[in-house]
Amino acid sequence: MTEFNWPSLRVSALDVSARAYVPYSHYPVGAAALADDGRVVTGCNVENAAYGVVLCAECGVISSLVAGGGGRLLAFTCCDAAGAVITPCGRCRQLLWEHGGPDLLLDTPSGILPLSALLPQAFGPDNLA
Ligand code: THU
C-alpha cells in the first residue's frame, strides 16, 4: 500500500477540484489516478442545467485515461474542495471497475482498500467474455 505516492496523488486531486464546474451543487470534486504506465490522470465534476446528466470527477479520469492511450488504473483518490477524501458514487465504482478491476487501490476515509471491497460481487467484463 505504501508503494504508491498517495500524498502526491491527493495533491493532484485537490488541484483539479479547483477547476470543477459546479454552479448547481457548489460541491467541487477532484479525482486523480495512477495508470500502469506511470501517467497520472485527473478529472473534476462537470454539472449541467439538466441535473441528471452531471459528469462526476471520475468520468473525467476515465476519459483522460482512454484518450491518453488507455491502460489500467492502479491507484485512485478523490476529494472535496477541502481536500477531504471521499468515496466514489456507485455508478463511478462501476466505471472504475472496468479500467482497474478488483485490485485497483482506493483511498478511502477508512484507509487504502481494493475496489473489490467497495463493489463486492461486481458485474464486469468477465461476465461478457
Ligand atoms: N460527485 C463526483 O464528482 N464524484 C462522486 O463520486 C460523488 C459525487 C459530484 C457530482 C455532483 O457534481 C456533486 O458531486 C454533488 O453530488
Record keyword descriptors for this entry.
129 residues, binds tetrahydrodeoxyuridine, five-stranded mixed sheet, 5 helices
Give an account of the 3D structure:
This protein has helices at 6-17, 57-67, 90-100, 115-118, 125-128, and strands at residues 29-35, 40-44, 73-80, 105-108, 111-114. With 129 residues, it is of the alpha+beta class. The model has no long low-confidence stretch (mean pLDDT 97).
Write the layout of secondary structure elements.
Blueprint: H1 6-17, E1 29-35, E2 40-44, H2 57-67, E3 73-80, H3 90-100, E4 105-108, E5 111-114, H4 115-118, H5 125-128
Parallel strand pairs: 3-4
Antiparallel strand pairs: 1-2, 1-3, 4-5
Tetrahydrodeoxyuridine binds next to helix 2.
- Please outline the major beta sheet: 5 strands, mixed
Number of helices: 5
Helix-residue proportion:
25-40%
User: What coarse outline follows from CA principal-axis ratios?
Assistant: globular
What is the oligomer described by this structure?
single chain
Low-confidence stretches: none
User: Whole-Å distance between the termini?
Assistant: 30 Å
Average pLDDT rating: 97
Strand order of the largest sheet: 2-1-3-4-5
Give me the count of strands: 5
> Mind telling me the C-alpha Rg?
14 Å
Content of β-strand:
15-25%
Instruction: Provide the list of bound ligands, each named once.
Output: tetrahydrodeoxyuridine
SSE order, as H and E? HEEHEHEEHH
Class from secondary-structure proportions: alpha+beta
